[in-house]
Amino acid sequence: MLSNSFKFKIIFPTIIALVALVVVLNVFLSFRFSTLSEDLINEKLFADSNSLKRYLEHSGESARAAAVSTAFFPEAAEAVKGRDRNEIIRIFTDKHDLYGINHFIICDAEGIVLARTDDPASFGYSLSHLQSVKDAMSGTVSTYFESGSVSRVSVRAGAPVYDEDGSLIGVILAGVRFDSEDVIGELKELFGSEVSVFLGSERIATTISYEGRGIAGMSMHPETAEIVIENKLEYFGYLEVFDNNYKAFYLPLMDAGGEVFAAFSLGIPVAELTIASRRSIRNGIILGLSGLAASAALLFFIVSKISKPIVDLASDMDKIAGGILDIPINVMGNDEIGQLGKSLRKVVNILHRLHVDINVMIYEHERGNTDYYLNTDYFHGDYKVLADNILELAQLGMRDQLTGIANRRSFDNRLNLEWGRAIREEEPLSILMLDVDNFKNYNDTYGHQQGDAALQTIANVLRRSVKRSLDFAARWGGEEFVILLPGTDSAGALIVAENVRKEIENEPIPCSDSGAAKVTVSVGVSTKIPTRYSRIEHIISMADHALYSAKETGRNRVVFRGADDGA
Prior knowledge:
This protein has 15 helices and 17 strands. It is about 50% helix and about 20% strand. Among the domains are: about 180-270, Beta-Lactamase, CATH 3.30.450.20; about 335-400, Four Helix Bundle (Hemerythrin (Met), subunit A) (Up-down Bundle); about 410-560, Reverse transcriptase/Diguanylate cyclase domain (Alpha-Beta Plaits). By secondary structure, it is an alpha+beta fold. Helix 2 (about 75-80) runs antiparallel to helix 3 and helix 8 packs across helix 9 (about 335-365).
């Protein structure tokens, strides 16, 4: 009989078990789809909320950069000083795209609006009550979320504009306004979520519509307003607009006083999720019953084929996340998984290139090659931003922040490099140490700000004085500077020292009282042909002693002390 056959005993229980498995699996997957879809919405909303925060932060940074940069434009200052509204609008309107902002407001020294690029017909009223304007009028650059009669919700940065004599002539406000349909339309396209902007609890701009009409003017739900506006908290919840429900995120915006005056919301509709979940349950049961063993076998085969390269990629990504970049990515093919493998290889190559370039740059800097920096043009997108930031940090670490020339650390590295070169090539090495004469009295007389300007002027003279590519000027510290002259004997070093001293003595350095002050330096010079038994500290010590002698014997002079008489 068939029921007693071996095939029947194998096939029938297998079919029964397979039917039950497929039905349970499909029902489970249908319900799981619903849960997973909601989880994906929550994850997307969370990701969008972080993107919104970064967008607002970036907008504030762009506004600050725009305000500070344009405050130093001579033509802008001239237009503000002349109160030429048409010229102001022409100059500043062209700067919108450059800084990624959408409006400038230019005020005079009393806070009266001279012109604004987003509403050229609006001027003549006072904005002196705004904290950003108050700060700028007091000489401070600041950035706040603010509300006004024209731009009701915006982020603005204020910067002072000074005349050539240092007097305040106006204030530049640069900002991004968020209450326009264009801006929220761009944000919707950027985030893929519905966007609303609230002033207080009133929705003043939104991408949400009902039956073809916008819903601007609708108020925030009272319970939501209590959390967001009164309690100043971010909030993940639901938004109901007539018959439509949205999973929503609310972000409060605080003004200069720390009070919530506005808010953003992002919304993702959940109606399609509900419909898709119900359809998935029904279709899952039907497909589960009709598929039977063939469906399960096919599914098993497909999953086996697909899961292996995915598992391999996941293993590789775990290694990359653990800091291992030198691994082969063996997933091949022209399908999507193969493309994913290729993309992962590109990411690994970029990270590996960045890692190698950074290590080479650090190695070169430690050897004294302070002019070596990684090439950021190789990178793109956020990788280029990261590389640019690393490059900027490296440059900051090797440059003096006040004068812009090399700092003490750069000098020490370069001295070690040139010292080794001088030993190998048996060439002389000269050091000039310079100290500004009576600098404390200068600071006390004209103020520290003018003292800083004097140091910057001297640094510029030193920058012009180092003619050869191997010559190196740096700020030693305080009012002391140092020049390294590889391959230069004592006679050549004394010529350079005297030229530098004369140039600084003849350099007109502005001051607040008499138009220009006479600033001089004392210079100590030391030269040595080092050997492998020489100590690098000796040449520095000799140059320092020579500088001390120059100070003791009258200042504004050059004194030489050879370093070949010691170790």
